[in-house]
User: Fold this.
Amino acid sequence: MRFAWNENQQGVHFDSTWFIGDKAAPYASGLYAWNAAKKALVIVYTDSNASLTEGTVRQEGNVFAHDLTVTNQDGSVDLVRVRLTKIGSDVFTNEIFVEQAGTWTKFVEVRYERGK
Assistant:
């Protein structure tokens, strides 16, 4: 996961890559920015499956809670919740929940550690 300020300093862009063994597999690229009309931090990104994800972000203590709508390549839509939790200055977890029949089910949990 790599984050950097946009050139105009009005948002933060990111790129996420999975590593399977020593092989890199780029996964998602997007940005966070302030939406004044919504009075909320928003996120938008595309992933390697050609899905478009959009949503809002709010802070809950040391957690950034994301409420997302994922539009898949076939036009179907999924509701997703993400919880990015800061564990330490160089560590955070990413929990992803998917809504299925009115129930939120944990899909995956990933731990990120800053490389040196």
